[in-house]
Amino acid sequence: MSLSIFTSASSMASVNALNKSNNLLSTAMERLGTGKRINSAADDAAGLQIATRLQGQSNGMTVAKRNISDATAMLQTAEGSFDEVTNILYRMKDLSTQAANDTNTKDDRDSIQSEFDELNNELENIMSNTSYGGEKLLKSIDSGVSGKGKLEGAVTFQIGSSSKETMTVNLSGGLGNVTTALNALTSAKLSNASGANATINSIQAALDSVGSVRSSLGANINRLGHTAANLANMQDNTNLALGNIQDADFATEASNMTRNQMLAQTSMSMLKQSNSMSGMVMSLLG
């Protein structure tokens, strides 16, 4: 190797090694500082694309889990209302059975009719005013009441991160049967045994209708519970895959940082030594 003051191969090699070590050191320190292996597309172009898709899916599933909670709360609100409707119907059947007995006087039956009428009013109150989020859910017994309950038509819930993951609940037929059966009770007369016996049959029909709707609500609530459990499992595994791609391995990066710090220091030391070789030229001229 010739001795020259213009070109120093050892100096250039030391500079290149120093630059490489500094670049790797900066990368390791950035990953340790952010906790992410991928901090820009240049770090891993293909990995960034995969991570972006997985992150979008995970975010969508987080919102879908909230959707499921909201949907469950709405259906439970409706089911709770029908539970009270059932309790009222039980009491109305007791009153009808009592009124069917001819041991009652006219005054007795008038008192029974009075309570029966008030229970009818409460049934209308429940059906007309049960709401979720300020929006009415059920169908009014009185056809003259304006407004439409949310559950009178098909209701679609978004239960996943993709457009195909939906669940539709349609209780319109069942609600129609319930209101028809409950409406028949508004004209019930308990002033005699025959009227009371006919009312017993009407109440049984109403109980059957309400039971059918409650069964549908319960089945859909249970389905949402299973959907939420499956969604949580999918999100956990999606986040695990996402972490494998974009999260920094602190043990590896700490080791890389230490190694590159040492390499940078030795490169600087060798650069100093290579620069001193140029001084040997002056000794030849002395």
Summarize the structure.
This protein has 286 residues and is mainly α. It has helices spanning 9-34, 45-99, 106-129, 172-185, 193-246, 250-277, 280-285, and strands at 131-132, 135-136, 154-158, 166-170.
List its traits.
286 residues, mainly alpha, f41 fragment of flagellin, N-terminal domain, two-stranded antiparallel sheet, 7 helices, cilium
Architecture overview:
With 286 residues, the protein is mainly α. It has helices spanning 9-34, 45-99, 106-129, 172-185, 193-246, 250-277, 280-285; strands at 131-132, 135-136, 154-158, 166-170. A two-stranded antiparallel ribbon has the order 1-2. The chain has a two-stranded antiparallel ribbon with strand order 3-4. Strand 1 (131-132) and strand 2 (135-136) form a beta hairpin. The longest helix has 55 residues, at 45-99. The two termini are 22 Å apart. The mean pLDDT is 86.
